[in-house]
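The pair is quoted verbatim below.
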Amino acid sequence: LVATIPTIGAVHDLAVRRITDGGLLVSLHAFASPALSLRKAHAGAEMLETALRKEIADIEYVKIHIEPLTN
């Protein structure tokens, strides 16, 4: 799924938890090129969130932390 988002290089620290009302909380860190503007990096995060919500119906909350991709 991450491979479909061109501005996101990879993800790590992925955590999925079921919250009290039965929905899912998804938290992850996503790598983006340091050459991207903050606006474009966050647009990629929004695309990733939308893709996750399409694939997993029970998601209620998504937290994506953007980090610069380094070599």
Q: What stands out?
A: The chain has a mean pLDDT of 93. Residues 11 and 27 are 10 Å apart (CA to CA).
